[in-house]
Amino acid sequence: MKTSTLSYFAGLVLSVTAAPIDVGSNGRITVQLNLDLGQAGIANAFDVNQLFAFSTMQFVQAVPEQVVNGTEPTGGIAGASGNFNFGINSAMNMICYNITLHNFQGDFSSPAVTATHIHEAALGASGPPRIAFPNPEPVGADGVVRNSAGCIKGPFKTGVMVEGKDSGEGFHVSQIEANPAAFMADTHSSLALAGAVRGQLA
Ligand SMILES: *[C@@H]1O[C@H](CO)[C@@H](O)[C@H](O)[C@H]1NC(C)=O
Ligand SMILES: *[C@@H]1O[C@H](CO)[C@@H](O)[C@H](O)[C@H]1NC(C)=O
Q1: How many C-beta atoms surround the C-beta of residue 83 within 10 A?
Q2: CA-closest residue to ligand 1 atom 2
Q3: Which of these, 76, 102, 126, 175, is most buried using a 10 Å CB contact count?
Q4: Which residues are the signal sequence here (predicted)?
Q5: Is the pLDDT score of 157 beyond 70?
Q6: From CA 167, how far away is CA 196, in angstroms rounded?
Q7: What separation in Å is there between the alpha carbon of 149 and the centre of ligand 1?
């Protein structure tokens, strides 16, 4: 399959090289590449810069006052705060994160694979996690500041099952861009299971 695709493409290249290059034959090659390589192939081979481009950024201030269980405010961890900074790359279904927590208390605790998430939930409401991020690690010896930074790409997996399906399954970061206010970022503590701090995307 791969070999025949390559040799077919090589044939096209040879025929173009052998003939005077004109706009028409260039156009046909472009179409052929699209068909053979698919979207991922095009991104990797011909638009490398796409990997380093965010289509949206989000700077979310997370506070204990926004934490709810259902719609009931629970207060989170008093005195804690968070900066959840995200760079979304919709073409790659990738999200880069730089999450800093101040004064987090207790242990990270969640039924999901980690305790630090983007949930699909409107302000004042609860909803399933869609993306689980590595929990922030202490930056200094006192553990007052914690940070987690990196990038993750779909397919996403949270470890939380909703109606027999992982709540991250099929999720695409473009859903966040389509309606950011329908999402929030939070982290959960053994001392505040509903959430230590939470912030709404906007
Ligand atoms: C994360 O953000 C902080 C500022 O809030 C910055 O000092 C740090 O360098 C950032 N980390 C990365 C990996 O970009
Ligand atoms: C949310 O509230 C319900 C009902 O009171 C309770 O059973 C549940 O344990 C609470 N969940 C969390 C994470 O606190």
Answers
A1: 17
A2: 98
A3: 76
A4: 1-18
A5: yes
A6: 21
A7: 8
Q: What's the chain's average pLDDT?
A: 83
* Mean pLDDT, residues 53-71 taken together: 97
CB-ligand 2 contact for 160 (6 Å cutoff): no
Q: Which residues contact 99 (CB under 8 A, 6 or more apart)?
A: 82, 83, 84, 85, 116, 133, 136, 147, 148, 149, 185, 187
Q: Is the pLDDT of residue 9 over 80?
A: no
Residue of 151, 171, 45 whose CA lies nearest to 94: 151
Q: What is the mean pLDDT of residues 65-86?
A: 98
* Ligand 1 centroid, distance to 96 Cα (angstroms): 12
- Ligand 1 atom closest to 149 (CA): 13
Q: Which residue's C-alpha comes closest to atom 6 of ligand 1?
A: 98
- Tell me: pLDDT of 17 over 50: no
Is a pLDDT exceeding 90 seen at residue 76?
yes
- The closest of 201, 186, 183 to 74, measured between CA atoms, is 186
Amino acid at 170: G
Q: Name which residue sits closest to atom 10 of ligand 2, judged by CA.
A: 69
| Ligand 2 nearest atom to the CA of residue 74, by list position | 14
Ligand nearest to the CA of 190: 2
